[in-house]
Amino acid sequence: MPTRSAREIDIDPRTYVGLQLPLKSDGNNNFASTKTSTEQAVFNLKNLLLTSLRERVSNPTFGSRLRELCFEQIDESLPEKIEGEVRKATSTWLPYININTVETLTKNGDKSKIVVAISFTTSLEPETTNELEIEPT
Description:
Helix content is 29%, strand content 24%. The chain is of the alpha+beta class and 137 residues long.
């Protein structure tokens, strides 16, 4: 069977790229799946950033320190630390994702609840900007 490009897979309605996380049913006794590479990139990025280092027994270097950083004292340097960690983990494990911006926000003015808002593109669709919000705590 000839190898198909990611673009060919994305436009084929009969093909699925990966699994949605967290795992859930699609109503047909199957796991819910992603249809496009961009949709899968969102799940891959979220999975990477919410996985703590040493959490995966078979690959202890996979993941990020994002959750750990969110329990540090909130000061003016925290957003910079979080952005650095997001960029470092992404460039190591998901080099096809290009991070545009990383914003550290508080949820509804509650300083005990941090939200990380990420804007990114993928190498497959560099003209399309995607957004992802993560609540690491």
